Structures are given as structure tokens and as C-alpha cells.
Amino acid sequence: MSVNSLLRCTIRLERAHVSTHLVQQRALSGADAVNALRPFYFAVHPDFFGQYPREREVNENSLKRLNGYLENLQKPGSGSVQPMKLTFYVRDTKDGSDVPPDVLTSGFRSVSFTLHTNNVLSTVMNVLKSCSLPMEHMKGLKASAESKHPAEAGTSVPFYRPIKWDKSYYAFTGLRDPEQELQQAKRVEPTLNLWLRNNEPEATKRHSASLPRREELHRLKKELSHKFDLADIRWQRSWGVAHRCCQLQSLSRLSQQNPEALINLQGHTVVFADQSGMNASGHVMLGTMDVHYQWTKLFERLPSYRSLQQHTEWLKERISLLLGGTQVVHVEKLGPVQLIAEHYSTLNTFHKSLLPARLRLHPRSLQGLTMMLENDSSSPRLHEMGHFIIPTNCDPPKLQAFLQSHAPKARQHTQRKNQLEAEEEAVMKLCLRSLSLRTLSKEPSVSSSQMILCCKRLVEQRSPLMQGFHVCVSHFYSVMQDGDLCVPWDWKS
């Protein structure tokens, strides 16, 4: 037998063993994968990061990409998939005595890893191992996955060990070295220019197709704002242009059929959201899944909502007087949406707890500081952006001591935040003008310091391929359905 014949025979045998091995590992179903990843979901689910919007946004995006990766692996005839780098913020679910050294003071740690597996079972184990989560339950899942093959019942799983060829083997046969490809996948990530060259044609095509819808969106927004004297029209989520047009067209039809119903909207900011009502900021939320009848009922109740909003403002003033000038704020981007009734209840409960305490604070000793209230039993803490996060059931004497001891640091954080926001605004304007972008925005999970660094590098590089696009700075590359570009803030040059 010649050398070439021997090599071809060996390759066929190796591929046969690989196929058998992959069939066994692919036997892990989607339901099994969900069960196996329960410890992981419990540690990273966005619902547990309500007070940390940046980390919540990162986990939401990474979970979507991980689910897509798993779905691709389960498609019939799926071969190898492209390596994917993921970042998660993992909550500490262990006892305090066994906290990893990399856990942040906020109670979670950042974990980044690259998925380069080509079957569900290995992917699940890779995720659990990368996040230092328990894997004992995987033994039972492996056994159940193998038991789903009746043809293999009663027989032992054949021993499999991949052949590790010498480098000269790949040079002689012309085949690709899997180890070398794996190392390259880990090291090489697309540079910004390379990604733009590969995706600019598709982005241009999508953007051109979206232009009529964008013009219609602009016309409807201007027409409704002028007709009903609206302060603004916004959207809670990053819906596409077509979706936003449909929502404005629906409101426009209602205004034509029943113009009297929208009179109470004058002066308000309208937000298309997941539910209807008025939020803590006094904005009118229109649920995108609600019908005109529900919107009309909301408009009829707006006078009572405005009265409730006035009561919340009065409570904020009273609380500020009791706490040395500290202002209660509610910033939507820093937490989940809160309805005005819930916000009023929170303020009222907190105000009643302060009244009998008779705190000894100078009326202006904490002037210029801000605080957010939350309905849980946690301890008061200082956010990195300079505002206090105070539980409504906080003991008043302890609260006074906390505010007074942390006031200097809070002022430093607030001053630093204001400086960063001013610098961020200036560098975004420079970037917008230098690159001739249509718009430049960022996801809430991108901090001001990250955005500043990203914009400065974009201005230095001045890529002509970005000219005329809507750009959003995020944590990953993507071409959106309307041709908008998402680029990671830490893009490679």
C-alpha cells in the first residue's frame, strides 16, 4: 500500500470516529441544555441586575448571542460555527466564606471567554467551567443523552482519542491544522476597518431601503408633536424604523377618529413602551400591545395622574428638607421603569419613616447631592455616579450617619461624573462632525469614560467607510435591520 493510500485510509477512519463521537455529544437536546445551564442563568440573568444598567445590558446582549450560538448548533446539518467571544457579569451565589477574589464590591465579577465548540454538550460545559459554576449535575445529563440511542443500549461507549498528527502531516496533505486554527480564532478578532470593509455594502443597502420609512417617521413625529403640543416622542426600546412608524401611524389614526381624546396629552412627553400608564418622570407611556380603547382610557385618567405627580413633587420637597437638601431623583436609564403610583407609594412610605425620627441635619448641609429609593432590605450605598441608593426601610439614625460620612466622596463622584459627561458630549460632537456621521449614540451599558476613549480613537482613525451612517457604540459588531452600525467601544485597530 502506498503512503498516499495509507494516509487516505487513516483519514477516513479518523473521520468515522469523530462522527460517532459528535453524534453522541450532539444528543444533548435544547431542553437538556436549558436544564444544564440553570446555575448559569441564575448567576447572570438580567433581572438580578436592576440597579446596574450597564451590567444588565451586557448580560442581555451576551445571552442573546449565546442562545443564537446554541440554536445554530442544533440545526440539522450544522457544521462548525464561527468562534464567539462573550462577556458576562456573574453574581456570587456562594457563601461569604467562599467568595472568589475577583468578585467586585457590588457582588458580581466580570467573566470573558471565547466559544469555539461545535456541539451543544461541549458548549454547555465550556460556559459553566468558564464561569466557575458547579458541573456535578452534568454527569446525569450525559448519561440521559447517551441512553437516547437504543442502538447503543447494552454496549459500552467506544473509546475515542483523536489522533494528534505531527505538523509535517498537515504540510504534506494540505489539510488544515485544527489546533492552529483554534489558536488563531482565540487571538484574531476583526479590526474595525476589516469589519467595515466586509459589512459596508450590506449596511448601505439596508440604509438605502430604510430612507422612505425614516422620512415618514420624521414627518409623523413632527406632525403629532405640533398638533398636540407634545414635549417629545420617545421609545423605551431600540425598535426598528418600521416598528416605530407603525406605532406613530396608530396614534395618528386615533387622533383622526377621536381628536378630543388626545387633548389631555398637551405638554407631555409620550413614550411608546411595554405597558400603558404614567412613569415616575411624568411621561405618558403607551403600551405597544394595547389597543386604542386602552389608550383612550389612559388619556381620560391623565388629570388624576397629574394630581398624583404634584403630590410626588411635594413629597420630594419635604424629604429634601428633612435630609439637609438631598434631592430624591428617579432616572429611568438607571433602573427599571417605575409607574407614578408605585413611585408615590415609595416616597410616602419613606417620608412617614423620617417624620418621627427628627434628624439633626443642617438644612443645606447636603445641598447638591441626590439619592434614589428602592424597595428592598439592602444597606444604603453610594453609586459610582455620585448618587446615594437608599432602601425605604432604612433606619433614620443610621441613614443620617451614612449620608454625613459619605457626603465628601459623593461630591467627588458627582463632580467627576459631570466632568466626564461634559467631555463625552464634546468629543461626540467632534466625532460626529469629523466622520460625517448622521447620528452617533451609545447603549446604556457603555460608560462615559468608555465612550470618550472610543470617540477619540475614531477621530484619530477617520475611517471613510463610516461616512453617512447612523452609528451606535456597543459591546459587539452588528449591522441593524435599518442599516445602522453597532461597533464595540473597545474595537481593535
Outline the structure in words:
The two termini are 52 Å apart. The protein has helices spanning 3-26, 30-36, 38-44, 53-74, 120-130, 138-147, 167-173, 178-187, 192-227, 241-257, 292-322, 340-354, 396-434, 448-461, and strands at 84-91, 108-115, 232-235, 269-273, 277-278, 284-287, 327-328, 370-374, 381-382, 388-391, 439-442, 470-474, 478-479, 485-488. The protein is built from 14 helices and 14 strands. With 493 residues, it is α/β, with parallel strands linked by helices. Helix 13 (396-434) packs parallel to helix 14.
Task: Please write out the topology.
Elements: H1 3-26, H2 30-36, H3 38-44, H4 53-74, E1 84-91, E2 108-115, H5 120-130, H6 138-147, H7 167-173, H8 178-187, H9 192-227, E3 232-235, H10 241-257, E4 269-273, E5 277-278, E6 284-287, H11 292-322, E7 327-328, H12 340-354, E8 370-374, E9 381-382, E10 388-391, H13 396-434, E11 439-442, H14 448-461, E12 470-474, E13 478-479, E14 485-488
